[in-house]
Design goal:
Layout (H helix, E strand, L loop, with lengths): L1 E6 L2 H12 L15 E4 L4 E6 L4 H6 L5 E5 H7 L4 E5 L5 E8 L10 E5 L2 H10 L4 E5 L6 H4 L5 E6 L3 H5 L2 E10 L1 E5 L1 H6 L1 H12 L7
Parallel strand pairs: 1-3, 1-4, 7-8, 7-9
Antiparallel strand pairs: 2-3, 4-11, 5-11, 6-9, 6-10
């Protein structure tokens, strides 16, 4: 059995549709139930739902052979896995945002609120910038509004939340999308099976032409 970790939620549903279209379906997954593990013995695959931020942990530690994780998670936590394929879904941007009138040239030590401390630190280190990182887990947009931080580093999809709170994107750090990843040991021993799935998934990737 090849174990596949899917991220819970809308992204995971899109990912499963790609697996299904690639010929790796598991009908039980569409039944209304509270099960977390679904098998298709005939195809030799086992799917399970996990929290999106945990997919890379399951794959890195071998509980899953392959899985799908956002590029943001891979850059933030740097798991020791192989990145096989950009699925070109779950697309958004990692951005620096602040109040519209804010100019960071007026600040010697920049206060940065974020969930993504590694990404933010790497970004500002490349600029040679002195920063004070404030790790938050939710409502990041609130930090500059209440003066807790000068800027935020966060994922932006549409930007509507920023606009509604009088904030704007000041810089785009990098584009984000969902990636197919593999456990390194699994790739050694189940390489043919994994590559076959990766090739089938590649056929399902919709490119922005």
């Amino acid at each position: 059995m090849l174990n596949i970790a899917l991220p819970k939620g809308r992204l995971g549903e899109k990912v499963y549709e790609m697996f299904e279209a690639a010929g790796y379906d598991c009908p039980a997954i569409k039944e209304i139930n509270r099960k977390l593990v679904f098998e298709n013995e005939e195809k030799g695959i086992r799917f399970f739902w996990v929290k999106p931020s945990d997919v890379s942990i399951y794959v890195e530690r071998g509980a899953a052979d392959i899985g799908v994780a956002g590029k943001d998670i891979l850059l933030e936590y740097k798991p020791n896995v192989y990145e096989l394929l950009d699925l070109n879904i779950g697309k958004c941007r990692m951005c620096v945002a602040a109040k519209k009138e804010f100019d960071d040239r007026d600040v010697s030590v920049l206060k940065v609120a974020t969930k993504f401390t590694s990404i933010a630190s790497d970004y500002y280190a490349k600029q040679g910038r002195d920063i004070d990182i404030i790790k938050l887990n939710g409502s990041i947009e609130l930090a500059p509004i209440l003066g807790l931080s000068d800027v935020i580093v966060d994922i932006v999809e549409t930007g509507s939340t920023l606009k509604e709170n009088n904030l704007e994107v000041k810089a785009t750090i990098l584009p984000i999308s969902a990636r197919l990843i593999a456990n390194k040991v699994s790739f050694k021993f189940k390489g043919k099976q994994i590559e076959k799935i990766a090739d089938a998934m590649k056929e399902q990737v919709k490119n922005d032409d």
